[in-house]
């Protein structure tokens, strides 16, 4: 990817890039819709990245070329808030704009972006774009941030500039993951711990090909319902509630609010149990927890869709599968399964075939090893040529 991007950059812009950065997508093993409730999540970065190559300019112009969209857009660093620019330029405009407000506005650039994180599948291509651009922008203004600060800055861009009320999981996973391990994140203290995945298991992502619909509306609504549940129980976040409390307050909550709270409270417990199971090498238990997590989202959080229910049920029936669940925001997107490594190929083929037969959609499967977090691939001070 690095070579291809350098060549494409040089071919289009006429000079080699002076900086290259990249950031990975992520898959969440367990712990969904817990991050903005101050709870626990267990994502891992995947070996799919957004790559950014750039060269600063002195005229304040940003010439942004996306190889994924095969499209070039030019605008001035004075016009970052222009709403007429295409949606896919928002992450860059947001990073430049907010850095300008908080530290120093980065200069104009010729910049090329290319990613192999599947878009719209729930693998956090947006967080990867943000984090890769933050890695670049900091170099351009010669500032440093910790990986945690970079991630939280990315969350700010997503929440305040792009306008999506997401939690902190995706950017933290993209910036902080360690190669070979999943990352337990306490979304309140922001403490993280690496959790190894036993070598005999593979993490398989299955993209349902059912694109997320009404995601933004559904996500924001769920978030409000969680806040409502916390208010009714008199806690600041659902992190502070127990299952007993949720049951005790049942009569005071609308049914949907009660269900959302029950999902979050039980899901937090499942994440911690999952960490214990992985550390004990108990893959069967890990698989059961993943299955329970799916049922909780299907029945209580109600952010699954029939295609994901069918897909995970097909996966679970395979003899080499420990467990499967939908992953990420929901309302479409991908599932994650834990599978015995020696049946990996058969698992992927069988699941795709049964899903095509039963649902009529062509799923894509990916076996991922846990990847490391974001970083700078190369930097060379521009010499004015
Ligand atoms: C999306 C958000 C995350 C998280 C998940 C659900 O991926 O970006 O912050 O809330 O949904 O777990």
User: How many structural domains can be distinguished in the coordinates?
Assistant: 2
Order of helices and strands: HEEEEHEHHHEEEHHHHHEEHEE
> Which blocks of ≥5 consecutive residues have pLDDT under 50?
none
Q: Please state the CA-atom Rg, rounded to the nearest Å.
A: 21 Å
Oligomer: single chain
Commentary on this structure:
The chain has eleven helices and twelve strands. Strands 1, 2, 3, 4, 5, 6, 7 and 12 form an eight-stranded mixed β-sheet that branches. α2 (90-102) crosses α3, α2 (90-102) packs across α4 (147-162) and α3 (125-140) packs across α5 (169-176). The longest helix has 25 residues, at 255-279. The protein is globular. It is an alpha+beta fold. It folds into two domains: 2-196 and 371-379, Ribosomal Protein S5, domain 2; 201-368, Alpha-Beta Plaits (2-Layer Sandwich). β9 (321-326) and β10 (334-340) form a beta hairpin. 49% of the residues are buried. It binds alpha-D-galactopyranose (GLA).
Concise description?
This protein is α+β, with helices and mostly antiparallel strands and 385 residues long.
Describe the protein's topology.
Blueprint: H1 2-13, E1 19-30, E2 40-56, E3 61-66, E4 71-76, H2 90-102, E5 109-115, H3 125-140, H4 147-162, H5 169-176, E6 181-186, E7 192-196, E8 201-207, H6 215-233, H7 243-248, H8 255-279, H9 283-301, H10 306-317, E9 321-326, E10 334-340, H11 344-359, E11 364-368, E12 375-379
Parallel strand pairs: 3-5
Antiparallel strand pairs: 1-2, 1-12, 2-5, 2-6, 3-4, 6-7, 8-10, 8-11, 9-10
Bound molecules: alpha-D-galactopyranose.
